[in-house]
């Protein structure tokens, strides 16, 4: 009997040592991953965007004698409501929101982006915005938990317009808790299962100054569809992607998928109402995208449709 007890006690002690040791290793590895300093280039662009072309010619708003700041503000509002899901994680008023609140994995709250108390962007210049949004790196150089890969192809003009819009919002007083990992999250970071955008992005390549000309074209559609690649992948053939347990794999958006047989009208309906031509509804998290779809213009959805239809028919990889 005593020997059995001794063996059990010995095993329990061993398990404790493994668990504690693993935890200490993971928490040290996570701390050093998060404490790294990542160098990025310095950029400069005017905020608000003056709406003057590269040759000094006046942009649409100037030609129509609209105040350029007002034009920038309207473009920025559209970008945040229809094209980029900033509000999904930073809150409807951009005064702070939730990306994930799932201890013992992690808590990642989108910080307050407004000019109120606790707003993290109050002293931001163009380089700070560039570093956070297009590189996934904080002002202090550490990698951010924010997925930024989809924002990589955002042009200077779009980023400036988004900033003009954010700065016009009513200031919200709200201090948001910094990113925290629990024991499971630490294991995921330590083993590399949770990756940071900063490690997947180039940090010294130039960004485009302007987006491609807006219109129902494949080129403009490719620009808009960059935000779909986070879940549908850059090949757009869908498959599994990081997310919450229970989420389905993303659909194949190349002509090899069901979409290959849909008309433009049918595609718009899926994007705005979440209902497919066969009457079935799309599941979470695609439902989170419907707000963007509703705010997109007919022309924007047409451009995405044309781009997707122009892709080579590709089977979803295993
Ligand atoms: C999927 C959720 C998500 C989306 C979408 C998102 N963010 Fe974030 N963002 C976060 C989280 C979480 C943090 C804090 C990360 C950290 O501290 O590691 C953050 C941090 C930031 C920061 C602060 C960086 C710093 O120095 O602390 C800025 C600025 C920012 N986001 C801007 C934006 C803008 C602009 C958009 C839209 C173009 C956007 N974010 C979209 C989740 C998101
Ligand atoms: C947060 C992840 C995510 C993002 C971002 C996202 N999708 Fe999806 N999408 C999904 C998932 C998951 C499904 C599968 C839903 C289901 O099985 O019901 C899906 C399904 C779809 C479908 C239905 C296709 C079919 O064959 O049934 C279309 C169309 C679609 N997405 C288009 C887009 C477009 C266009 C964008 C970018 C504007 C986009 N999605 C962005 C996750 C996403």
Automatic annotation (TrEMBL):
Matching InterPro entries: Cyt_c-like_dom (IPR009056), Cyt_c-like_dom_sf (IPR036909), Cytochrome_c-type_DH (IPR051459)
Domain of life: Bacteria
SUPFAM superfamilies to which the protein is assigned, alphabetical: Cytochrome c
Residue ranges of every copy of the Cytochrome c domain listed in the record: 71-170, 187-312
Record's keyword annotation contains Iron: yes
Keywords: Heme, Iron, Metal-binding
Ranges annotated as spanning the membrane: none
Alphabetized PANTHER family for the sequence: BLL4482 PROTEIN, BLL4482 PROTEIN-RELATED
Full protein name: C-type cytochrome
Origin species: Gaopeijia maritima
The organism's taxonomic lineage, starting at the top: Bacteria, Pseudomonadati, Gemmatimonadota, Longimicrobiia, Gaopeijiales
């Amino acid at each position: 009997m005593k020997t059995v007890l001794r063996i059990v006690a010995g095993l329990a002690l061993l398990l404790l040592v493994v668990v504690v040791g693993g935890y200490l290793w993971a928490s040290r590895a996570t701390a050093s991953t998060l404490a790294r300093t990542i160098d990025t280039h310095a950029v400069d662009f005017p905020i608000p965007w003056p709406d003057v072309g590269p040759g000094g010619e006046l942009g649409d708003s100037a030609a129509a004698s609209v105040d350029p700041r007002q034009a920038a503000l309207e473009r920025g509002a559209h970008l945040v409501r229809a094209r980029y899901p900033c509000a999904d994680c930073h809150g409807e008023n951009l005064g702070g929101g939730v990306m994930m609140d799932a201890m013992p994995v992690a808590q990642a709250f989108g910080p307050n982006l407004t000019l109120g108390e606790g707003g993290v962007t109050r002293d931001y210049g163009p380089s700070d915005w560039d570093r956070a949004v297009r590189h996934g790196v904080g002002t202090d150089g550490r990698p951010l938990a924010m997925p930024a890969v989809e924002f990589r192809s955002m042009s200077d003009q779009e980023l400036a317009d988004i900033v003009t819009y954010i700065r016009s919002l009513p200031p919200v007083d709200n201090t948001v808790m910094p990113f925290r990992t629990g024991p499971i999250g630490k294991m995921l970071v330590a083993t590399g299962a949770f990756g940071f955008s900063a490690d997947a992005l180039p940090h010294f390549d130039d960004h485009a100054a302007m987006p491609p000309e807006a219109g129902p074209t494949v080129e403009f559609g490719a620009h808009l569809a960059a935000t779909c690649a986070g879940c549908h992948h850059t090949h757009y053939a869908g498959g599994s992607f990081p997310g919450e347990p229970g989420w389905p794999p993303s659909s194949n958006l190349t002509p090899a998928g069901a979409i290959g047989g849909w008309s433009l009208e049918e595609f718009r309906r899926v994007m705005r109402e979440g209902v497919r031509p066969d009457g079935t509804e799309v599941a979470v998290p695609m439902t989170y995208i419907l707000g963007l779809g509703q705010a997109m213009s007919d022309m924007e959805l047409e451009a995405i449709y044309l781009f997707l239809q122009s892709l080579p028919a590709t089977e979803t990889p295993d």
